[in-house]
Design brief:
Helices cover 55% and strands 14% of the residues. By secondary structure, the protein is an alpha/beta fold. The protein has two domains: 135 residues, Rossmann fold (3-Layer(aba) Sandwich), CATH 3.40.50.2300; 73 residues, Winged helix-like DNA-binding domain superfamily/Winged helix DNA-binding domain (Arc Repressor Mutant, subunit A, Orthogonal Bundle). A six-stranded parallel sheet has the order 2-1-3-4-5-6, with helices on both faces. The longest helix is centred in the C-terminal third of the chain and has 15 residues.
């Protein structure tokens, strides 16, 4: 069973997530928290596998809790619950190594898929969230587009042609399954490629890799 902690200051949000995850036979919500500090205490006490963390919470916000999670519960992976228009918060969550980003109106099946992916040690971002996050972060980054492109292309020199092809699809916000369908590759093979790409580029998650793809203008995007 995948042991999950739900941290959100809104009881109705927590109840909805609990109901959705409870429909999966391999997932159990073992604890709920209303703030970041409580989330850290419960994550350690219940030895959870996955923590769903809201960004905006009292006492301690989700981003601060994310930064402390690896220390208090090193085996736990964090999925960030976010909304549109939080560019700075999302950038911080990316750099803190969150395992994924979900919009609060994420479809139930996608939520379950995200928890399973995180528990398996993989990053998950819904395509809608990825496109929005990458667009927002790219728009707010410093330096000229030409300078960013030059730096990104230099970093991408370690990748093979096939890896660049997969990275381009990450930049579009495609899931592993959708990327596989696009380039006639199994989902498992795409997953292997993604892991290899992240390792070669020194990226913690798909958002960081997608930003590099955007900066490098893979596929002619600027």
């Amino acid at each position: 069973m995948i042991r999950v902690l739900v941290a959100d200051d809104e009881p109705l949000i927590r109840a909805g997530i609990r109901m959705i995850l409870g429909s999966a036979d391999d997932i159990e919500v073992v604890a709920e928290a209303a703030d970041g500090r409580e989330a850290l205490e419960l994550a350690r006490a219940h030895r959870v596998d996955v923590v769903l963390l809201d960004i905006q919470m009292p006492v301690m916000d989700g981003l601060t809790a994310l930064g402390e999670l690896a220390r208090v519960a090193p085996g736990a992976r964090a999925l960030i619950l976010t909304t549109f228009g939080e560019r700075e918060n999302v950038l911080r969550a990316v750099t803190e190594g969150g395992a994924g980003f979900l919009l609060k109106d994420t479809a139930p099946g996608e939520l379950i898929q995200a928890v399973r992916a995180a528990a398996g040690g993989n990053a998950f971002l819904s395509p809608a969230a990825t496109r929005h996050i990458v667009d927002s972060l790219a728009a707010g980054r410093g330096g000229t587009a030409a300078a960013r492109a030059a730096r990104a292309r230099q970093r991408l020199e370690v990748l093979t042609g096939r890896e660049l092809e997969v990275l381009e699809l990450l930049g579009e916000g495609l899931s592993n399954a959708d990327a596989g369908a696009r380039i006639h590759m199994s989902e498992a093979t795409v997953k292997t490629y993604v892991s290899r790409i992240l390792a070669k580029l020194g990226c913690d998650n798909r958002v960081q890799a997608a930003l590099l793809a955007r900066d490098a203008e893979l596929g002619g995007r600027g």
